[in-house]
Description:
Immunoglobulin-like; Alpha-Beta Plaits; five-stranded mixed β-sheet; 32 strands; mainly beta
Amino acid sequence: MAGKLSYDLQRVYNLTVEVWDRGMPPLKCDQPSYVLINITDDNNHFPQFIPNKYTASVYENATIGTFVTIVTAVDEDVTSYPLTFSITNGDDYGLFNIVTNSTNTSNAVLEVSGYLDHEKVPLYELAITVTDTGGLFANAVVMVTILDVNDNGPYFEPPYYTGEVREEKLEQKVATLIVKDPDGPKNGGPFTYTIINGTHGADFRLQVTSEDTVNLYAYGVFLRSKRTEYTVLITATDNGVPQQIGRTSVYVRILDSGLNSFEPFGSQMRILVHAYEGNFTGGVIGKVYYQDNDYPGGANTYSLVTQIKSDLLVVQYFKIESTTGDITATKGLPLGTYNLKVLIEEKTLRSQEKSRKMVTSSVEVIVLPVTQNALQQSITVQFKDVKGVRHFVSRYYDVVQNAIFNIMTRMTKPFGYNGPFRIVSLTSPYQVLIFSLQKPQHSTNSIYAQIAVIDAIDQLEILFRFHKEELTEQLKGIQSKTLISYYRSCALIFTQLFLLQTRLLQE
């Protein structure tokens, strides 16, 4: 063979061959010979996409198996088939799949194989590779646009708001509300805002300032002596199809007229000090509470009159800061119950009065031990729809403590539960420890609380697994909607745990 054969140029050669002998002189055969040569194909061509770039789109709510597009490739080599297709880049989470046509391997179908989200990834750039039987390959790009659907409702940021209104004053701005919607423009604003608790409609009105901002104004005449707080429920409806709704609450406090017209009067409060292993390291444990229909109350001075232990022993474990009312307990505060009397005196002389008003408040301090065993058996509970720690302390603490106590005193081993169970002898709600109240970073309308029961092992987890609905139902008496979720965990070891609890605290 004097040259290079090519399957692409000529696939069959038909040759005529003359045969001569080796004699002298050489003689030629009377009949020529014929040779038929077939050139077989070699895999010397790469497959090619037609075209090498595709564009497609699919809605984000597409179900698994939804068609996206068809890709096509050819190969000039006859022996290179069947071709195989694969996704080699751009699909980190496996949301797409490519299926080769079984009857014509030059084609493959790209389809959805996972749950898409336009808000997270609106566009995918997929690298598709086709490979022949000899291992030669080619690449193509498929640009897949994820189309938006109205699958997210608008939400307020932050989730709830607080504001203040001065009594006997018209037209006051309460708060500026900001609304966001992760959906695209067609499924977002402009938003429609509505005050849904109609009883406040005459007193509060909304004024839209931009596509995602609305101001709440108060127009009524408010009297703190009749009502100290309003809760205004507001909805935002987006412009998508179907429409989605977001909700928020604005907690509005009524301030007094600023004339300091009401006198303070004494009240009672209770402070629970939870000391790890009975050792209290010292520090501020709370603030003296008194009542005053002026809000905020006037400036006062505070002085500690008496401090007596439950056994009538006069003690010197506590101090009070004269201008702030902060109560400090010394290091090594023994366990037990203490009763304090605090004198509160107004700084400002009221008009037509010859002397400043003086009242006395009672403070009960209860010091309880938190053992390492209690911490290890504790449960982390999240209370939702709670404005904050003060809100929980003033409205929930006693109810949660008493509800857990009452349920556990009559709790029996649940049907179907095969774990350890031991009847706990509870004689006081104080055996239910609620401590380490914390506000989560990701939420402004919930708190975490660590709950333990002295001498309980698994009963607390049983309570939240089998009696959570009963506990939730009791809490609904405080708030119309209360959600509870719990986590089995070992609490951190605290050297000092204390909680301020006031029965008459005004939020």
